[in-house]
């Protein structure tokens, strides 16, 4: 007898990420399990990419500090992720302030993380590719500033996902930039170890 779709074992959409090297999660707070913190960290480092890929030098300065998944006011599952980074010279323009493209990169990565955290909580791949980003630059952080990236999910449906990001000075009540990032699930490139979920 051939297995029917209802009797087939469901393939784990997070299997590839689970196979990645272990990450240090000792500095991550939040209400999720250590196993889920570990998986979120693995996915985070996978998308930061190896040295030489776009943005990886900036991404390696970002530190995951907190991951929370909870039911919001609407009753829907939501996530909040906090990252921190110290502004270095390589993040800055010739005036010694964070380059706009670097700020956009932080909004991109920041907004992705609560969507990934929701995916982990639901047992699905919460990643996707950028569809649209709207960023407002409120102030200009300088070299030596410690940034606090506060990212929250807006929605995380099957194909369309949105996250909100605010980047603050960790030690002052100063907002540097904020943004909303819309992402969409698409099939991975041919030969990719990550399976499509469309």
TrEMBL record:
Q: Which domain of life is it from?
A: Eukaryota
Annotated Pfam families: 4HBT (PF03061)
Read off the InterPro entries from this record: ACOT13 (IPR039298), HotDog_dom_sf (IPR029069), Thioestr_dom (IPR006683)
Q: Where is the Thioesterase domain?
A: 95-171
Q: Which GO terms describe its molecular function?
A: fatty acyl-CoA hydrolase activity
Q: Which residues form a coiled coil?
A: none
Q: Kindly state which keywords UniProt assigns to this record, in alphabetical order.
A: Hydrolase
For this chain, the family text in UniProt reads: Belongs to the thioesterase PaaI family.
Q: What is this protein called?
A: Thioesterase domain-containing protein
What species does this protein belong to?
Coniophora puteana (strain RWD-64-598)
